[in-house]
Amino acid sequence: MIISEDKKYVMNTYSRFPITLVQGKGTKVWDENGKEYLDFVAGIAVNVLGHSHPVIVEAVKSQVDKLVHVSNLYWNGNQVQLAKMICEKSFGKSAFFCNSGTEANEAAIKLARKYGNTKYNGRRYKIITAKNSFHGRTYGALTATAQPKYHKNFEPLLEGFESVEYNDINSLKSAVDKNTCAVMLEVIQGEGGINEAKNEYLQQVRKLCDENDLLLIFDEVQTGIGRTGKLFAYEHSGVVPDVMTLAKALGGGFPIGVLVVNEKADVFTPGDHGSTFGGNPLACAVGMAVMKNVAQESFLNMVKENGEFFKNQLLAMKEKHSIIDKVKGKGLMIGVKLDIEDGSDIVKKAMEKGLLINLLNHNVLRFVPPLIITKEEIAKGMNILEEVFLEMGY
């Protein structure tokens, strides 16, 4: 009934799997027939505390009884507290709240343009991004996303963007000109296939931006809030950006996005940007609950430890199954490049056996489970995956 009515009434923008999920607890979800699944997708790196975590449930219930939404025409205590938590845990001087990662990236694009145009009398507007990046689906973020498959049928895109090879400083240097105002990168490319930026590369990018007075923007929509074993992925390299975007994990399942800036990039003034729902009391209450849990050193150490265990499990499987070409990623953001052109049948068979996983670029399995996952659950998931490999002759 749900699937047939979805096809009748909901716009056809997703290629969905043939199951309807109705309940979740921890790292598990159940469909309408009562079948249980181990969730290694977590809403695409969103449900960091798993499903129906008590602190999130309590934050929602408590705040709903007080105040759900007010306009940003008025001061909002929850918004101030969450901004303070994020800024004090990062490089940030101030934060702007919106509702998603793509909105946060749109805000970053506008901010970069204002920085370049006001400081250089309208002469700096170009933003450089990396090939295989993903920054969102609204027009600015879509143009910044340097993957042609997302652009098809939506041209003409916005002017003033150029894409370069990821992890190639010479490619970036050749693109910088008198019109450039910013460089926008993912510390680990998510939708592009779990591709990590090398520390040396990020250090070179930071130096280039400093030498040319460019804003360095890190899109941490997928990597931020504990996913890599650090609160923010930039901490692994020691390279600090001027601007950072966050979303996904911060709300633990509730929509929220954030633009974080240092003093240099703090150029927005009243009227420059806004969001009706951005930073509402309910979203910020949930964000605070997530931050209080994930930002603990013991929690981040657990993510790092379990991430290493996960990768070691996969590396051991690689020795036995030639289909695994490469294991990559950091923390609990892990990719497995397959030595076949299309791994969609692997994803389907894993789902049939009770394991939810995700596929990127046709042949990269992505694992972004809840950060509360245990070693036992990781091992269970890997046992299911190995069963799939064996049954398919890999």
At a glance:
The protein has 394 residues and is of the alpha/beta class. Helix content is 38%, strand content 19%. It has 13 helices and 17 strands.
CATH topology value of the largest domain: Aspartate Aminotransferase, domain 2
CATH architecture of the largest domain: 3-Layer(aba) Sandwich
Helix/strand structural class: alpha/beta
Q: What amount of the residues lies in strands? A: 15-25%
The general outline is globular
Query: What is the helical fraction, as a range of percent?
Result: 25-40%
CATH class of the largest domain: Alpha Beta
* Total number of distinct structural domains: 2
N-to-C CA distance: 37 Å
Q: Work out the number of β strands.
A: 17
The DSSP helix count reads 13
Rg, rounded, reads 21 Å
Strand order of the largest sheet: 4-12-11-10-7-5-6
Largest sheet: number of strands, sense, barrel closure: 7 strands, mixed
SSE order: HEEEHHHEHEHHEHEEEHEEEHHEEHEEEH
Catalytic activity: N(2)-acetyl-L-ornithine + 2-oxoglutarate = N-acetyl-L-glutamate 5-semialdehyde + L-glutamate
Enzyme class: transferase
GO molecular function: identical protein binding; N2-acetyl-L-ornithine:2-oxoglutarate 5-aminotransferase activity; pyridoxal phosphate binding
Subcellular location: Cytoplasm
Keywords:
394 residues, alpha/beta, Aspartate Aminotransferase, domain 1, Aspartate Aminotransferase, domain 2, four-stranded mixed β-sheet, 13 helices, 17 strands, 19% strand, globular
Give a verbal description of the structure.
This protein is of the alpha/beta class and 394 residues long. The protein has two domains: 2-52 and 298-391, Aspartate Aminotransferase, domain 1; 55-294, Aspartate Aminotransferase, domain 2. Helix content is 38%, strand content 19%. The strands form four sheets. It has a seven-stranded mixed sheet with strand order 4-12-11-10-7-5-6, sandwiched between helices. A four-stranded mixed sheet has the order 1-2-3-15. It has a four-stranded antiparallel sheet with strand order 13-14-17-16, with helices on one face. Helix 3 (54-64) packs antiparallel against helix 10 and helix 4 (77-89) runs parallel beside helix 10 (281-294). The protein is globular and about 65 Å long. The protein starts with a helix and ends with a helix. Its main location: cytoplasm.
